[in-house]
Automatic annotation (TrEMBL), chains A, B:
<dbReference type="Pfam" id="PF01575">
    <property type="entry name" value="MaoC_dehydratas"/>
</dbReference>
<dbReference type="InterPro" id="IPR002539">
    <property type="entry name" value="MaoC-like_dom"/>
</dbReference>
<protein>
    <submittedName>
        <fullName>MaoC family dehydratase</fullName>
    </submittedName>
</protein>
<dbReference type="InterPro" id="IPR029069">
    <property type="entry name" value="HotDog_dom_sf"/>
</dbReference>
<feature type="domain" description="MaoC-like">
    <location>
        <begin position="9"/>
        <end position="115"/>
    </location>
</feature>
<dbReference type="InterPro" id="IPR052342">
    <property type="entry name" value="MCH/BMMD"/>
</dbReference>
Length: 151, 151
């Protein structure tokens, strides 16, 4: 879908993905080598009482789920940034994540009539329906060719 | 270093790391499979005129550089979140990244005297000294044992 097909209030939900312990450890060993992400034994004495996924692993899992849902993927021209990310609850081995996404702001580009900027609010949910992470992104999206000609 | 050793205004700079084309493509193939991150030929016709690193690759490279600098790593008890992330300039194959980090806020925990929350402002620089990304993180840091007893 194009910029013009995603008005404020449009929402969708992604597929679900499980994070297995081995993946959690592999990701964190490369990108976030803190013991409560990489060592199940040592993690028992951490504030989390056991192994938890790196928050960056949760973020990237959410992002790939969103891309794979293919709502705005083909119109994407990149992203200027991200706001208000909060890691609300630990993600543990075997948790299954999915993402609820809602358009909260749309702004046609003033200088470039072929694109606009869309702000998406995300809630990442686990298999119990609990929010584990929330965040906002902005994405530059191509306009529908006929729409940009008309604006 | 502990929470108490990192007052507002404390700053440090990380080591530098180069992002090679093969790494950029490998990361994006798994986590951000958009053609301007994965296909050098097709990327020439993108708004960026060539292959650029996923912004998440830049973020994780910055984070691992920060962890490896070992300033607050051992006191870390995790992070509540991240704010105001902006991808300012493309990162291209061969670019060398380093991070300037500054403490902008410190807040001892009211309920848990053994820890505090520290806010860090980050500027990721390329080899030309240009800012390619800025963002803020909050990190929960353990207090120095004598400091928490005294507070």
């Amino acid at each position: 879908m194009y910029f013009d097909d995603l008005p404020v209030g449009y929402s969708f939900e992604t597929a679900e993905r499980e994070l297995a312990e081995a993946e959690i450890i592999a990701f964190a060993s490369q990108w976030d080598p803190q013991f409560f992400h990489t060592d199940p034994e040592a993690a028992k004495s951490s504030p989390y009482g056991g192994l938890i996924a790196s928050g960056y692993h949760t973020l990237l899992t959410a992002f790939t789920l969103e891309l794979a849902s293919n709502v705005w993927t083909e119109a994407s021209m990149g992203s200027p940034g991200m706001d208000a990310l909060r890691w609300l609850r630990p993600v543990r081995p075997g948790d299954r994540l999915r993402v609820r996404v809602e358009v909260t702001e749309t702004r046609p580009s003033r200088s470039k009539p072929d694109r606009g900027i869309t702000r998406f609010a995300h809630t990442v949910l686990n298999q119990h329906g609990e929010a584990v992470m929330t965040y906002e992104t902005m994405v530059i999206l191509a306009r529908r060719p006929d729409a940009s000609a008309a604006s």
